[in-house]
């Protein structure tokens, strides 16, 4: 097995290096690093949902009419959805659609006699009973048991968590297949759908935006690997049974290695923090929502100026930083109030709420840690750009 794994890694490495040489050779003509959707406009779950909804909406300014929505419905039928004949001209597409008790839908497509809910889970974790609540809304509130469809959309087609599938306090979980909940992936299903849209799009400007969105998905979710590179790697994996077994072994080992990278990087942060006179603290599991790490001031006169970094979503995503103090006595002190007031008045982007004296998100490129660029950067330890950014 060890030799098979080594052989596969060498083959994949050679393929990627060959692609890298090609990119460098033709970069001026093809601008492989040009990714304005991520680099300028940001790449968060809400903005990604809004992008998809924009093209599904006939009333938006893409000028291509119903071709995107029709293509999407045909795509669902090919996946086994028992869809009736739907009048796409009457469709309403909404984002962040809020219901009184069942939660907020990322995308809701409303037809005269059917509803489609899309739950987009790229970085955020499932809420308790979330998917079962959505299913119940489709079944009970609208009285259309066979006309409500639920799509759970993740980077690689993962299943919802057991907690999100439970109904109320019961241990009974909803049945994904029987209750018309389909699992889809951004990295394959949606990219293939958008590729089909590109082929049908007549307006060059619209086609260019769709192509840029695929590039954003490849860089933001797919680790910077294009579909062509993915297919080359798939061919290597499928070359023999041993290659496939080696790929499975690598896939099993990869999460462990990622945790080791993060652990080593945290050790590096701790060393730098101590060298600069801070005490360093971190949570044991950084994949949990609201986990993070802190720099505590060892100077007693400045102990109210502790800096905390916290992931607002699970899987090390949506990282914010700011001044956080749990000591009610310190909060009453004049020095603390003066320091916070100074920060608020001299930093434009800083916000504050009941949990934070002041806080802000990190820049887009450093906000989400669960991606290949960040892991590679962490391996540089003291030379890491992320480390320099933090300090």
Description:
- With 391 residues, the chain is an alpha+beta fold.
- The chain has two domains: 34-236, no CATH class; 255-390.
- The chain has 16 helices and ten strands.
- The strands form two sheets. Strands 1-2-3-4-5 form a five-stranded mixed β-sheet.
- A hairpin with a 3-residue loop joins strand 8 and strand 9.
- Helix 1 (2-25) packs antiparallel against helix 10, helix 1 crosses helix 11 (241-275) and helix 5 (67-78) packs across helix 8.
Topology:
Elements: H1 2-25, H2 27-30, H3 36-39, H4 45-56, H5 67-78, E1 92-99, E2 103-110, E3 115-120, H6 130-141, E4 148-154, H7 162-165, E5 181-185, H8 186-200, H9 204-220, H10 227-237, H11 241-275, E6 278-282, E7 292-297, E8 307-313, E9 317-323, H12 328-332, H13 334-346, E10 358-361, H14 364-367, H15 372-378, H16 385-390
Helix pairs in contact: 1-10, 1-11, 5-8, 8-9
């Amino acid at each position: 097995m060890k030799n098979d794994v080594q052989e596969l890694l060498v083959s994949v490495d050679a393929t990627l290096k060959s692609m890298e040489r090609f990119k460098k050779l033709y970069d001026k003509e093809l601008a492989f690093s040009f990714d304005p959707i991520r680099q300028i406009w940001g790449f968060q779950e809400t903005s990604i949902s809004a992008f998809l909804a924009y093209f599904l909406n006939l009333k938006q300014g893409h000028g291509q009419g119903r071709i995107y929505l029709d293509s999407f419905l045909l795509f669902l039928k090919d996946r086994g959805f028992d869809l009736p004949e739907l009048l796409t001209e009457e469709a309403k597409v909404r984002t962040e659609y809020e219901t009184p008790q069942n939660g907020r839908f990322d995308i809701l497509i409303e037809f005269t006699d059917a509803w489609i809910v899309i739950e987009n889970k790229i970085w955020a974790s499932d809420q308790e009973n979330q998917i079962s609540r959505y299913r119940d809304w489709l079944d009970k509130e609208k009285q259309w048991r066979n006309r409500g469809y639920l799509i759970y959309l993740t980077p690689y087609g993962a299943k919802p968590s057991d907690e999100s599938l439970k109904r109320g306090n019961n241990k009974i979980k909803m049945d994904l297949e029987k209750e018309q909940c389909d699992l889809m992936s951004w990295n394959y299903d949606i990219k293939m759908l958008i590729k089909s849209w590109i082929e049908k799009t007549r307006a060059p400007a619209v086609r260019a935006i769709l192509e840029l969105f695929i590039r954003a998905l490849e860089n933001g979710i797919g680790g910077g690997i294009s579909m062509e590179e993915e297919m080359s790697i798939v061919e290597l994996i499928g070359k023999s049974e041993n290659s496939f077994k080696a790929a499975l072994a690598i896939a099993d080992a990869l999460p462990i290695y990622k945790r080791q990278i993060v652990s080593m990087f945290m050790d590096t942060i701790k060393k730098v923090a101590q060298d600069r006179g801070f005490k360093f603290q971190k949570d044991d599991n950084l994949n949990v929502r609201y986990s993070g790490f802190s720099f505590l001031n060892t100077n007693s006169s400045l102990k109210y100026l502790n800096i905390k970094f916290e992931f607002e979503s699970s899987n090390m995503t949506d990282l914010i930083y700011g001044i956080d103090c749990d000591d009610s006595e310190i909060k009453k002190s004049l020095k603390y109030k003066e320091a916070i007031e100074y920060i608020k008045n001299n930093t434009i982007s800083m916000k504050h709420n009941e949990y934070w004296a002041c806080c802000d998100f990190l820049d887009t490129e450093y906000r989400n840690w669960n991606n290949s660029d960040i892991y590679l950067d962490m391996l540089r330890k003291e030379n890491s750009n992320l480390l320099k950014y933090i300090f």
